[in-house]
């Protein structure tokens, strides 16, 4: 996977990697990341029954996906207005305290067309952690029909799920799994609303919901994510 699609500096963006798997399965599916996805390294997609696996050059498993179980996506909330999302995005915490400045999804040091620049922040008047922003896909991420690639839609829904927890309680993490259904891919240059919300926490696991809407509020894609927080640091004796 090309280094352009990184999340952390030395591994792939989790949403993009999950989306590479998800594009091979019709309808909603769940993708799991089993190891950091290497950059600038040959990878292969292998069919496994109704699912698919992502292998590195040595044949080691780095990710896999299968059709999602019924009801696993839950209900997405109504979209905030375009104006509310635009205002919320100005409060993206990564603009004040850098997260991953070169992340394909939310990196603020990447130009349009190089990264997605999906910036989400707290929506005024919404419950704590309900974040949103406006994303207008660059033409470089579209296919010959002018529609954004499926894996790019997954990537756009990635980081906001972590931002929701950062805004609510200051904790983020690494993406462990993502269940997603893309109902309509946006066109290049089409303003979209990206929203995310925290759902529940169990130990180091945090569950988030994310969604992509048209400017008029049409639900175009929805996901559920499991984020794995960092292990507590050992206290000095």
Name of the CATH architecture: Beta Barrel
Mind telling me the C-alpha Rg?
17 Å
What number of domains?
Answer: 1
Count of strand segments: 10
- Secondary-structure class: alpha+beta
Mean pLDDT: 93
- Reading off the top of the CATH hierarchy, the class is best stated as Mainly Beta
Instruction: Tell me the major beta sheet.
Output: 10 strands, antiparallel
CATH T-level fold name? Porin
Q: What is the spatial order of strands in the main beta sheet?
A: 2-3-4-1-7-10-9-8-6-5
Would you identify the CATH H-level superfamily?
A: Acyl-CoA thioesterase, double hotdog domain
Q: What is the H/E string?
A: HEEEEHEEHHEEEE
Distance between the termini: 43 Å
Q: How large is the share of residues in beta strands?
A: 25-35%
Q: How many helix segments? A: 4
- Roughly how much helix do the residues carry, as a percent range? 10-25%
Q: Report the uncertain regions.
A: 232-237
Q: What sort of overall outline do the alpha carbons produce when their principal axes are compared?
A: globular
Entry summary:
By secondary structure, this protein is an alpha+beta fold.
Keywords:
10 strands; 15% helix; alpha+beta; 29% strand; globular; Porin; single chain; disordered C terminus; 237 residues; ten-stranded antiparallel sheet
